[in-house]
Amino acid sequence: MAKDFYDVLGVGRGASEKEVRSAYRKLARKYHPDVNPGDKAAEARFKEINQAYEVLSDAEKRRKYDKYGDKWEYADQIEEAQRQRGARYGFGGYGGATYQEFDLSDLGDIGDLGGVFSTFFRRGGGTGTRTARRGADIQQPVEVSLEEAYHGTTRMLEMVATEPCPTCGGAGEIAGATCHTCQGAGFVQRPRRLEVKIPAGVTNGSRVRIAGEGQAGIGGQKGDLLLVVTVRPHARFERKGDDLHEDIDVPVATAALGGEVEVPTMTARVMLKIPPETQNGRVFKLAGLGMPRLGREGKGDLYARVRLRLPERLNDRQKKLFEELRAAGA
User: Fold this and answer.
1) In the predicted model, what is the mean pLDDT of residues 191-199?
2) For the segment 130-188, what is each residue's pLDDT rounded down to a tens digit?
3) For 122-126, 145-149, 231-235, which range has the lowest pLDDT when averaged over its residues?
4) Angle (CA) 123 128 133, round 5°
């Protein structure tokens, strides 16, 4: 029996988008493979968490899940069939009935859906026609480091694709008999590996669209794959939009008399000129050394904030000099 996505994330059905996101981030940090190397149970739990978040973080997918449960991926097909209730079809072998109705509560496993689909989309026995529908989009959460967000990166995704059955073409049957490949469902699920490119400049919440890599449609084109990006916090840099902020240690003597200090950036280290009498907390702007602007030319800026570094373990001479400075009122 499929696990309830709300239970997987530990939230109630009335949870807000913020509560869902907060629960996901907490669990993802706890069970991330980098935190649990070699732990297969944690890896499986991490995949469950991502799958649950993929659905509950998307308003439309969540609506379908709330209505159809673990059959949410077939919501479009089910609703298409429901829309055709009452339409007249010339089915043979149904006791002269002019149309077939069904109740969603009677559905069991996915094989039952095949009976619904083949009733409404039968090839040959009736006059019903298949309505072409575009496949649903798939959301996939992706986590990257700040360095990967700066340079761009790739990910190899392991996914399960829902596709029309190659044997019956999605009809659910062949020559009036249930298709043995899909057991009448009309759809099959296949594991696949997909390498995707994440462009430079992505930030938290960025959505990268991979056209045609979503769910298969009914006689229509595939949906798209949407990568929902989360950028991990960095030990040194704080990101604000396309700008980066960092603290730089400046010796007291350099701040007082002027000089140069080394400033790390995302690609190299640069020398920053410190003017005399620089105060603690002063911020210097290094233009163009921030993050790439997603989808645009140029980069943001880097802001270096001075953090005065006091000497430790003073020797006698240093102590004497500081005493002289204090006596002089410095």
Assistant:
1) 89
2) 566 787 888 888 999 999 999 999 999 887 777 777 888 777 788 778 887 877 777 77
3) 122-126
4) 90
pTM, rounded to two decimals: 0.57
What are the contacts of 294-299 at 24+ separation with CB within 8 A?
294/199, 294/200, 294/201, 294/202, 294/203, 294/206, 295/199, 295/201, 299/242
Q: Are 149 and 233 in contact (CB under 8 A)?
A: no
The pair of three-digit structure tokens given for residue 26, joined into one six-digit string: 């907490």
Distance in angstroms (rounded) separating the CA atoms of residues 209 and 198: 10
| Strands of 60-218, DSSP E | 138-144, 153-164, 173-174, 177-178, 187-198, 207-210
Q: Which is nearest to 307 in space by CA: 235, 236, 244, 246?
A: 246
Tell me which of 37-51, 74-88, 151-165 is least confident: 74-88
Dihedral Cα 61, 85, 161, 166, nearest 10 deg:
-170
206: CB partners within 8 A, 6+ apart: 228, 229, 294
The bridge status of strand 173-174 relative to strand 177-178 is: antiparallel
Which stretch of DSSP H or E encloses residue 229?
strand 225-231
Contact present, 227 and 140 (Cβ < 8 Å): yes
Helices (H), 152-216: none
Answer yes or no: are the C-beta atoms of 127 and 172 closer than 8 Å. no
